Amino acid sequence: MEKISKDKYDLIDIENLYSQWHPDPIIFLKKIDQECALYILKKTEITYLNNSEYKNILNFTNSPECENILSRVEKEKNKEKLFEILKEREKLHPRVFDKGYEIEELYDLVEKGEYHPICILELNKKMYMIDGRTRLYCCIFLNLPLKVRILTDNELYENC
Predict the structure, then answer these.
(1) Do the domain assignments include residue 58?
(2) How far is CA 66 from CA 2, 90, 124, in A?
(3) Is 136 helix (H, G, I), strand (E, B) or coil?
(4) pLDDT tens digit sequence for 30-76
C-alpha cells in the first residue's frame, strides 16, 4: 500500500507545518519545539470531516490560479480530466517532498480509503492546510469525507 513509511509521512507533515507561508502559523510555531510537535502529531487521532468542511480551511486555495483549479474540480465529473487538472496544479505548485505517488495512485488510495490523512493545524479556531491538497481534491471529486489529523494550538501549546 504505502511507498513510504508512516514515520516518513509524519516528518513530511512536520516539515510542511514549519514551512507555512501564512503569518499566523509562523508566529505561533516560533514558540513550539519541532520535535515536540512531531510527538504530538504522531499521537493525534485520525478523524473524519464532512466533505464540505474544506471550505473552512483558510489556506487551501492560496492564489487565484488555485481558486480556479478548485472551481474546476468541484464541477468536474470525468476522472481523466480531474487528473489533468491536478497535474496542472502540480506544475503551478510543485510538491516540495516527493512521496513516490503519481496523482492516479493517490486517487486510487483515496477512493479505497487507504491514504495518509490530510494534515490540518487548528489555530485560534481557524483551520490551516498543512499537507494533503491532492488527497483533498480527490476527496472533493469523489464526494468522500476527509480523513484528517488535526493538530490543535491548545494541544501544542500545553505540551510543547
Answers:
(1) yes
(2) 27, 10, 24
(3) helix
(4) 999 999 999 999 999 999 999 999 999 988 887 889 899 999 999 99
Residue 143: CB atoms within 10 Å: 8
What is the count of structural domains for the chain? Answer: 1
> Is residue 1 predicted with pLDDT exceeding 50?
no
Q: Which residues contact 153 (CB under 8 A, 6 or more apart)?
A: 28, 121, 122, 123, 124
Query: Is residue 1 in some structural domain?
Result: no
More confident residue, 153 or 100: 153
Task: Please state, in angstroms and rounded to a whole number, the distance separating the CA atoms of residues 117 and 136.
Answer: 9
**Are 88 and 69 spatial neighbours (Cβ–Cβ below 8 Å)?**
yes
| Phi, psi angles (nearest 5°) of residue 118 | -70, 140
Q: And the C-alpha cell for 61?
A: 486555495
- The pLDDT of residue 139 is 98
Q: Is residue 154 part of a domain?
A: yes
> For residue 99, what are the domain limits?
6-159
Cβ pair 47, 75 in contact under 8 A = no
This prediction has a pTM of 0.92
User: 72 in a domain, yes or no?
Assistant: yes
What is the rounded average pLDDT for all residues in the chain? 92
